[in-house]
């Protein structure tokens, strides 16, 4: 500061104009030699350039004002430029307007406008122009003003300036016209931009480039190519600015031939060496899935800059080529180039996607070394990386280090909790960010909704929904689709459907969410209704839609609909997808058409583990258990690796301890860790009824330390009760400090199987009193207990409370229990009314149960109706014929009885032989 003051004093001593009157100052400058005046101006310029602080500049400004030279153009513009370069546009504008008393010359205005424009103070430039434009403008004024309107997206003022251009006769200037067409293009008014371009008498390379860029910006690929051709025909030498925009569009339009031609054009005109084109070509070839060409462009660049390295890293990352991306990052480091934000944010995912914590920590160290760790975007990427690597403590530590956190940082932390299954912590963070004054954005809301989907916390979910409505996120499709899925996953499909109906715009994902939501609860009618409505609204379905619809079809009455959807899949070209094939196999086998499922399986060229599992599950459902083990052997022979589901399909069909032990041995040899469901399934072997085997399994479980898990405890209770050891099952039940609904249900089912309905009902009441809500399976157990014990009134009350009190839609099993109860107790008319009022076709087991009751109570009228329902099915079983035949015989209808037996023999059906499950080996 002292040095500047000394220079300032010397300057004013040299000029000798301190406190002189205007007239004397005029005489002084008139009498001064030109060389002397030039030296004085040069000294002033040097002094201004040496002023590096606002304080010094204000002191100089004050001295010049006292000296009375503040209206000299050179002094004024020097001060204006210096104020702007120091980031103080306001005093610069005030100085300029005051120096000329609001009436500057066009030349002075142009100097000021250019100065504001060069330093990026576009809003201040426009404010100054609004104040002083009345005193004149020319070509040199309009161009930077129009560019400022473009920069701040102020189209209204831009149009006013355009009117001024036309009014003052400057509409034919190439620079002004170029600025105008660029403004309109960036404002999305490409048609107006083209009109300006067409009105140009003379077009230079810059104006043509602007038009090409405008078309590229607005996605007008063909129009941009046409202008490019016109430029070539006009003999213009294309440069990098001409090509870079179109190159960027080639990938999006999958125009590989055009991209290759543009590459040749760039080489022809010598523009290929331009760094911007190198990056553009790397990205273009990456979009074509041609990474080898991207790498060739990169390798051929003699001098690689940071942008080129970033483009190559990004190209590899987009294709999940983690190793190659990290290798380019290493090459960049070896070349002595330090990473920037783009580099770091691009390369960090490779650590959690391929490498691991060691590489991640190495990159973290490099980030610290280059001083990038304070950048929020980098810190957020690090939080995300550590979270995905399972190092949640490190992520939280890094998160807490930042005192001021923005949305990006909070979103990374919430996402990190979700990745590590910390649902409650994710929801807590969502609440905390609001307490700390950070308003959640759409990403945060979607993450919070995801947390609710896992916790099934409807109360919290509704609070988040209310926040989304309050914050006007109802128009955000991603948020609304997340809400649809969340309500469906939480079992509130009615709210999900209500929300769906209120949506103004329903995307494909919205339809798929609802269709799959109804499919999950087995409501095939609603799924099909939505699918038909979707097609009526001309929304194009996709593979997910078809799989969801097919998955909803499970009854034999759905087979015709399933075949229609299958035909639609073939017409749309989706039938070759293995996921769809798997869904179709499940659908056909669930509908009882095992042959169609088998044909699909045989025709599948790429059968995977899920394909085999689907057919195995179908065999189990249709009681074709003898085909499951041969299918498993075929699976192993074809090198298709079985998974947990495969073994869970195998264990229940084991007919001896030896088979069960063989499957167990296979699991021990081929699975690194035996999962809890496998142990429970090794017990769901309780069907063998072997108490000794049950004791052995229990010993293994106790030895492995699995006994504390709910799943295992519940399976143990079920196993021992099926083996006749109900007292030991009750001991296990009572020894458990914590019981879930399945634990209660397993014990209730145990008493139900042993015919002790009274204790089962008492246990059900105790369960309700303890605050545990029964699930649909528990209701099956307690209704079954009522059936076995003949508790009609209790059964009726429970069946009514199923939906009224607990919101559980009755399933086939619930109907079957009620029909069995009413049938056993002689209420056949009521039982048959339930059969006729069911929303879907009753199962064969349900009808056989009612048919047996009809025979027992000698009700041939209802029995005949039920029997016909059974034998008219394509999949009638021999026992159905035998039962109906016995009813005819009891009623004395011998001719009907004889006709039925003849039909049975014609179909090759034979009476099943009875077996006992107790003590089978």
TrEMBL record:
InterPro entries cross-referenced by the UniProt entry: E_motif, PPR_At4g14850-like_plant, PPR_rpt, TPR-like_helical_dom_sf
PPR repeat ranges, renumbered to this chain: 204-238, 305-339, 406-440, 608-642, 740-774
Keywords: Repeat, Transit peptide
Short name of any one Pfam family annotated for the protein: PPR_2
Source organism superkingdom: Eukaryota
NCBIfam families with a match to the protein in the record: PPR
Name this protein carries in UniProt: Pentatricopeptide repeat-containing protein
Organism name: Urochloa decumbens
């Amino acid at each position: 500061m002292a040095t500047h003051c000394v220079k300032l004093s010397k300057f004013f001593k040299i000029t000798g104009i301190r406190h002189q009157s205007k007239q004397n100052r005029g005489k002084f400058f008139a009498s001064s030699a030109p060389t002397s005046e030039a030296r004085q101006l040069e000294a002033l310029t040097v002094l201004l350039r040496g002023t590096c602080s606002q304080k010094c500049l204000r002191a100089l400004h004050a001295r010049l004002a006292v000296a009375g030279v503040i209206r000299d153009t050179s002094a004024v513009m020097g001060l204006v430029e210096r104020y702007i370069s120091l980031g103080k546009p306001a005093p610069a504008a005030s100085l300029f307007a005051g120096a000329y008393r609001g009436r500057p010359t066009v030349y002075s205005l142009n100097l000021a406008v250019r100065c504001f424009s060069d330093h990026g103070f576009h809003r201040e430039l426009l404010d100054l122009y609004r104040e002083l434009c009345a005193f004149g403008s020319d070509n040199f004024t309009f161009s930077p003003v129009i560019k400022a309107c473009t920069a701040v997206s102020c189209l209204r003022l831009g149009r006013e300036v355009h009117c001024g251009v036309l009014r003052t006769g400057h509409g034919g200037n190439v620079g002004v016209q170029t600025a105008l067409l660029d403004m309109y293009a960036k404002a999305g008014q490409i048609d107006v931009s083209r009109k300006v371009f067409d009105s140009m008498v003379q077009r230079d390379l810059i104006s043509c480039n602007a038009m090409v860029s405008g078309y590229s910006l607005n996605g007008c690929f063909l129009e941009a190519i046409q202008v490019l051709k016109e430029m070539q025909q006009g003999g213009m030498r294309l440069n990098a600015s001409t090509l870079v925009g179109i190159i960027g569009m080639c990938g999006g339009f999958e125009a590989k031939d055009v991209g290759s031609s543009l590459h040749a054009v760039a080489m022809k005109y010598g523009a290929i060496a331009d760094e911007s084109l190198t990056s553009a070509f790397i990205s273009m070839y990456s979009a074509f899935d041609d990474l080898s060409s991207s790498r060739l462009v990169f390798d051929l660049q003699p001098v690689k800059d940071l942008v080129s390295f970033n483009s190559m890293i990004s190209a590899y990352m987009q294709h999940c080529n983690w190793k190659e991306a990290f290798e380019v990052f290493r090459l960049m480091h070896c070349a002595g180039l330090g990473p920037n934000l783009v580099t770091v944010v691009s390369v960090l995912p490779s650590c959690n996607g391929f490498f691991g914590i060691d590489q991640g920590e190495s990159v973290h160290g490099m980030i610290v070394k280059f001083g990038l760790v304070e950048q929020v975007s980098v810190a957020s990427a690090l939080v995300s990386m550590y979270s995905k690597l399972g190092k949640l403590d490190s992520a939280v530590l890094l998160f807490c280090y930042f005192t001021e956190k923005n949305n990006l940082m909070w979103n990374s932390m919430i996402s990190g909790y979700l990745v590590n299954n910390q649902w409650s912590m994710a929801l807590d963070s969502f609440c905390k960010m609001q307490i700390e004054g950070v308003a959640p954005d759409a990403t945060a809301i979607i993450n919070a909704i995801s947390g609710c989907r896992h916790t099934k916390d409807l109360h919290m979910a509704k609070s988040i929904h209310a926040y989304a409505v309050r914050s006007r996120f109802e128009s955000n499709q991603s948020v609304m689709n997340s809400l649809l899925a969340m309500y469906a996953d939480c079992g509130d499909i009615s709210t999900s459907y209500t929300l769906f109906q209120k949506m103004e715009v329903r995307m494909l994902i919205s339809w798929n969410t609802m269709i799959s939501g109804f499919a999950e609860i087995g409501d095939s009618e609603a799924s099909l209704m939505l699918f038909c409505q979707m097609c009526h609204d001309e929304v194009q379905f996709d593979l997910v839609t078809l799989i969801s619809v097919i998955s909803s079809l499970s009854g034999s009455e759905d087979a015709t609909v399933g075949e229609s959807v299958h035909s639609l899949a073939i017409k749309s070209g989706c039938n070759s997808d293995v996921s769809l094939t798997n869904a179709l196999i499940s659908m056909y086998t669930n509908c009882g058409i095992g042959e169609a499922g088998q044909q699909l399986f045989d025709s599948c060229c790429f059968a995977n583990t899920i394909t085999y599992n689907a057919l195995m599950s179908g065999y189990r459902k249709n009681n074709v258990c003898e085909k499951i083990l041969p299918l498993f052997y075929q699976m192993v022979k074809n090198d298709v690796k079985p998974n947990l589901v495969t073994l869970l399909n195998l264990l229940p069909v084991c007919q001896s301890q030896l088979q069960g032990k063989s499957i167990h041995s296979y699991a021990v040899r081929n699975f690194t860790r035996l999962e809890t469901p496998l142990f429970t399934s090794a017990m769901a072997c309780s069907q063998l009824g072997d108490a000794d085997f049950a004791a052995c399994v229990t010993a293994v479980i106790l030895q492995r330390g699995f006994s504390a898990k709910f799943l295992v405890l519940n399976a143990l209770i079920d196993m021992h009760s099926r083996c006749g050891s109900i007292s030991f099952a009750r001991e296990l039940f009572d020894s458990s400090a914590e019981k879930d609904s399945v634990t209660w249900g397993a014990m209730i089912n145990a008493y139900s199987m042993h015919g002790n309905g009274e204790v089962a009902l008492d246990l059900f009441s105790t369960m309700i009193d303890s605050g545990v809500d029964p699930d649909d399976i528990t209701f099956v157990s307690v209704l079954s207990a009522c059936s076995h014990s003949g508790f009609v009134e209790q059964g009726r009350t429970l069946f009514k409370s199923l939906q009224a009190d607990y919101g559980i839609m009755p399933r086939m099993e619930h109907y079957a229990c009620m029909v069995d109860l009413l049938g056993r107790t002689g209420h056949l008319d009521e039982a048959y009314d339930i059969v006729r009022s069911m929303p879907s076709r009753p199962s064969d087991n349900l009808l056989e149960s009612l048919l047996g009751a009809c025979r027992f109570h000698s009700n041939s009228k209802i029995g005949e109706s039920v029997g016909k329902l059974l034998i008219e099915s394509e999949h009638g079983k021999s026992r159905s014929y035998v039962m109906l035949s016995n009813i005819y015989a009891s009623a004395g209808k011998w001719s009907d009885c004889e006709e039925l037996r003849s039909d049975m023999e014609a179909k090759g059906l034979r009476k099943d032989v009875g077996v006992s499950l107790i003590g089978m080996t």
